[in-house]
Design goal:
By secondary structure, the chain is mainly alpha-helical. It is 70% helix and 7% strand.
Length: 166
């Protein structure tokens, strides 16, 4: 089965999407640079002078990528990712999003324990009695290394406060 006969997201669409996203990022950098001053004052360049030109280079690169997408990939039918591979990517990406949400809500240690245990259960097919203690052990290890060893506090949530870990 050839790559062109598969159904999925086209490479042309992905190239244009990435070019658009990086262009928007470059425009945001330029806009932020104007807010803090992107010109030249009596004392030399203002704080946003260098960031403005970095943003302009990002926009220029985005335009070049968009032109390249039109030249190389428009009408070729190349597939960037098909449905079955998208599911595999989502099986790793969606738990990471959940990890970020849980960590912001309940703290990094709880999020880490749940993420490690969930990954071991659902992706690694470990038994729950191996996965759950492993997740707790990793979080405990991070707590000992960062909080006690390096004295670097990580994001804590309400459960750590309830246990008096602050």
């Amino acid at each position: 089965m050839s790559e062109n006969s598969a159904n999925g997201l086209s490479r042309f669409a992905v190239e244009l999407g990435v070019a658009a996203l990086t262009g928007i990022f470059g425009a945001a950098v330029c806009y932020g640079a104007f807010d803090i001053g992107a010109g030249w004052s009596d004392f030399g360049p203002e704080a946003g002078y260098f960031p403005f030109y970095i943003g302009a280079l990002i926009i220029l690169g985005s335009v070049a990528n968009a032109i390249g997408a039109f030249v190389k990939h428009r009408g070729t039918g190349d597939i960037f990712i098909d449905g079955s591979r998208a599911r595999v990517v989502a099986s790793f990406f969606l738990p990471l999003i959940a990890f970020a949400g849980v960590s912001a809500w309940l703290g990094l240690y709880v999020g880490t324990a749940l993420y490690i245990a969930g990954a071991m259960l659902f992706q690694g097919r470990y038994k729950w009695w191996i996965a759950l203690p492993s997740g707790v052990a990793v979080s405990l290890f991070f707590f000992i290394v960062f909080e006690i060893g390096f004295k670097v506090p990580l994001l804590k949530g309400p459960l750590e406060a309830w246990f008096g870990i602050y």
